[in-house]
Amino acid sequence: xxxxxxxRFELGTPLRLEPKRFVNPFLSTLYLDTPVARSSMSxxxxxxxxxxxxxxxxxxxxxxxxxxxxxxxxxxxxxxxxVRTIVEPFEYPEWVVEExxxxxxxxxxxxxxxxKQASISNWHEDPLVxxxxxxxxxxxxxxxxxxxxxxxxxxxxxxxxxxEDTGWRIQDRSIDGxxxxxxxxxxx
Length: 188
Fold this sequence. Notes:
alpha+beta, 3 helices, 36% helix
């Protein structure tokens, strides 16, 4: 096995940084193509110019902030996001079949799968997981709606929704006549 020789670094002369002329792009558009004249400058002059440039930049940012502060404060804040937990029943006001409100619950197996997918400690409030499972539950409601249109009855326990092979199975179905709600418990 051939070994590579160790790396060697040679120290060279340090490069000298020279300041460039400050040009305000808003006030002057002339002389942009003129080259910067090289001049020997002492360290104290360089530091003084650098402090001057920093002060000008700070003043410009303050001027911009003062002129735009009113427009920034005028913008409305976004309305608070409704936090839904995955443990509560999934329900929407438009999920109605023949005056019966439809709700969906997740089985213990699906809740365990959701807990494994969550990236935060409050797994039941993880918005990404809730949004993902909410989309699948919406597909389940569409399946219930189409099933009712086709057969004029609601799916029974054991039926699979939205896909015959990989869809979710109805584990339990409970009916509340007083509230006019039907709750389906879904299993994977």
